[in-house]
Amino acid sequence: MQNIPVVKLGLIAVSRDCFIIFLSERPRAAVAAACEAKGLHIYEAKTTVENEKDMLAAVDEVKAAGCNALCVFLGNFGPETPETLIAQRFDGPVMFAAAAEETGKDLINGRGDAYCGMLNCSYNLGMRHIPAYIPEYPVGTAEEVADMIADFIPVARTVIGLKGLKIITFGPRPQDFFACNAPIKGLYELGVEIEENSELDLLVSYKEHAGDARIPEVVEDMKREMGEGKYYGDLLERMAQFELTLLDWAENHKGARQYVAFADKCWPAFPSQFGFEPCYVNSRLVSRGIPVSCEVDIYGALSEYIGMCVTGDAVTLLDINNSVPKDLYEEDIAGRYDYKLTDTFMGFHCGNTPSCKMCADRAIKYQLIQHRLLEPAGSDPDFTRGTLEGDIAASDITFYRLQCDAQGVLRSYIAEGEVLPVATRSFGGIGIFAIQEMGRFYRHVLVEKGYPHHGAVAFRHCGKALFSVMRYLGIRDIAYNQPAGLPYKTENPFA
């Protein structure tokens, strides 16, 4: 299932009518060529925008070419009104970049002044309240602008994805996990749709899939994925039936939207009524691009989807769970890795992390905590089986979340770090995470701003793109793990 957008880029050059038009058209062609040389296909619009009628023609041209994202390129100073109306009229994410001067040997007729024009462009975007992506330094050569466009692609993919996203939920958010309860107002502000359903709706649909002719094929795929000895043979048919239930629900309920994510209630009623824990199935769906968050964590599912669009890769959702014991730190981390004890923590969940992001010894097991709670003492695990357990493989990571707080305000955090290649000695899908200055980040961002215990994890460093996404979405509070020399506003200077 293709559950994230494919970005189709367009390139429109703009030119101030008192400047020579080739000062925009020549570098536009050079930018297009530089993009192609880097493997970035881009449609080069032949209409150069000097006035509002040109603007209408250029936007129609890129739409007709199937473009869903756009780079507006200032080859010279640029016409302030038409260039910003491009972004207003184009139904998709737009970036702005400007040409650097080409040579010191031609600063009379060859000077474009796009450095200056970018300032008035940004001012006019602000006047019209038009969101746009502007690179960190938006003036460059053709090759540098092509690199800026490459950085824009994951941002554009995410913005397009959110406009086409529906989050489907099952069940009310759990009583004892109020941290996962959040106003859905923020979803509508982002343009995300939501469909909330009962657990009974899911159970009825699951029962209707009994005997589905596709079940044996899914069972065999599960066996291939896990390998012999890594699964419960008697459980696979039930789990395959559930996987098909979710996939069919996504297809039949996405309605006018193109993309879906799930936020499901997975305890306490689920295992006894369905006959298994849903964690492994959830992990399989996220590995193919459909996030399924635990405990009806709607903004967790949203965050996962954002990370998936940014990276084009599988992500996960974990509890920011427990501190690393001092003896474990001293034995396996101190002196080997450049982290303080308070820079480390364990990220854990019952088993929703894709198997491709876990160590080779991962296996389908049972949920220890739920077994204690729901099944007779001393009994063998039965319906609490179905988690995917093992240590998460060592990797660069970005820990992040977009959340609507209790006041209905969208805010986010982003922190880059890594999963250490250190055995956790614990249960569940779990890893030892290390983030510089995590202790201070934990106190002055996560605790201070009331974030819930769930965080999304992308398995690479993608803070730059995530930050740009949040900025494009209009998120004003974007927190990060500030270095030791940069105190947080709430940090006690005398501590």
Distance between the termini: 52 Å
Largest sheet: 6 strands, antiparallel, barrel
- Contiguous runs where pLDDT drops below 50 for at least 5 residues: none
Structural class call reads alpha/beta
Helix content: 25-40%
Number of helices: 16
Q: What is Rg? A: 25 Å
Could you provide a short overview of the structure?
The protein is an alpha/beta fold and about 500 residues long. Helices cover about 35% and strands about 20% of the residues.
Secondary-structure map:
Elements: E1 9-14, H1 22-37, E2 42-44, H2 52-64, E3 69-74, H3 80-89, E4 94-99, H4 114-127, E5 139-140, H5 142-163, E6 165-170, H6 185-190, E7 193-197, H7 199-208, H8 215-226, H9 236-253, E8 259-264, H10 269-274, H11 279-287, E9 292-293, H12 298-311, E10 315-322, H13 326-332, E11 344-349, E12 363-366, H14 368-374, E13 385-391, E14 395-404, E15 410-419, E16 429-434, H15 438-447, E17 454-458, H16 463-472, E18 477-480
Parallel strand pairs: 1-2, 1-3, 3-4, 4-5, 6-7, 6-8, 8-9, 13-16, 15-18
Antiparallel strand pairs: 10-11, 10-17, 11-16, 12-13, 14-15, 14-17, 15-16
